[in-house]
Design brief:
Layout (H helix, E strand, L loop, with lengths): L1 H25 L12 H26 L5 H29 L4 H10 L12 H9 L1 H4 L6 H26 L1 H29 L3 H12 L1 H15 L4 H24 L5 H26 L24
Helix pairs in contact: 1-7, 1-8, 1-9, 1-10, 2-8, 2-11, 2-12, 3-4, 3-11, 4-5, 4-7, 5-8, 7-8, 7-9, 7-10, 7-11, 8-9, 8-12
Length: 314
């Protein structure tokens, strides 16, 4: 039953985010950073709020209620943040050496590196979204760039699946919140993917299918995450802390910096409101699905969370 839940959630997240992005593109959303009061900027703010709320209000509390020493879990949290930073640096270094043919190629290289393909959420969404509004940067990009996007997106989606599965193994509610947060931040990510793919192929439907297939890799990550946690129950709190560090890193190192630009007062207020909306959305869904003010009760038939027993008893 748990595996089925993970498969459904990861498939909806991986493929659904692509189709939502495709729908937004059909509606004319382009994702330019200067359009701070429109489309993807709203999504970026919403995604940042959802990721932060999931990390700090749900995943971390669940992990800390396992009874492990807080200093140990904080060390894992810090280590996760450093790990994702190093993986980001490695990805930038790799693409910087692969594409050293001038500013146009560099712009394409950063767009192709949209995912910062580490095992948990390190996107360069700024470059992916920027690419949506800078078609001239891709007008002369090599056609192989589309395959670079698909390869990076597949690894990125695989990491998403592992983290979603880890949350589901702790509690179905946590898994749903993690899947929702990933979905929210993958939509603007895939807006950029689809724009790059359309620059390398004139067939918009083919681009949608290719990115959707990359999204299905999320389910493979989900299966691996389920298999690992099923056999390593005592490691579940560490998986949850690692997932929360990934969510926090994406929000603070990638999404929020894109919103830190000088804007008109109205646009700034909209950014803040959408950020708060992401926090309220995650918290509200948690309360509704939980039926308890503090979000620690569990529905009938759902496996007990980390907080109700030592990690090795799951």
């Amino acid at each position: 039953m748990k595996l089925l839940q993970i498969l459904l959630a990861t498939l909806v997240t991986g493929i659904g985010s692509v189709w939502i992005a495709g729908m937004l593109l059909r509606l004319g959303v382009r994702g330019r950073p200067q359009d701070a009061g429109h489309g993807p900027q709203h999504l970026l703010s919403l995604a940042a709020g959802a990721l932060l709320a999931t990390a700090f209000m749900h995943l971390l509390p669940e992990a800390f209620e396992s009874g492990l020493e807080p200093s140990v879990l904080f060390a894992v949290l810090l280590g996760g943040l450093v790990l994702f930073f190093l993986l980001d640096k490695a990805e930038l270094w790799h693409h910087g050496h692969e594409h050293h043919h001038g500013p146009v190629a560099d712009a394409h290289a950063h767009a192709a590196a949209h995912g910062h393909d580490h095992p948990g959420h390190g996107p360069l969404h700024a470059h992916a979204v920027d690419s949506a509004g800078h078609d001239h940067a891709h007008a002369h990009a090599p056609r192989v760039g589309g395959w670079a996007v698909l390869a990076g997106d597949s690894v990125h989606c695989f990491g998403d699946g592992v983290l979603i599965a880890s949350a589901f193994m702790a509690d179905t509610r946590l898994g749903l919140l993690a899947a929702l947060s990933v979905l929210a931040h993958e939509v603007p990510h895939h807006v950029g993917d689809l724009v790059v793919m359309r620059q390398t192929s004139p067939d918009a439907r083919a681009a949608l299918i290719k990115v959707s297939l990359a999204g299905t890799v999320t389910a493979l990550g989900g299966v691996l995450g389920w298999w690992l946690v099923e056999r390593l129950h005592g490691w579940l709190p560490y998986f949850l802390v690692l997932a929360s560090s990934s969510f926090a890193y994406v929000a603070l190192a990638d999404l929020i910096p894109q919103l830190q630009r000088r804007l008109a007062a109205r646009q700034t207020v909209l950014q803040v409101l959408w950020l708060l909306a992401g926090i309220v959305l995650v918290t509200g869904i948690s309360r509704l699905s939980h039926g308890d003010e503090h979000g620690h009760g569990h529905d009938e038939g759902v496996a007990p969370p980390v907080s109700t027993a030592p990690p090795h008893t799951h």
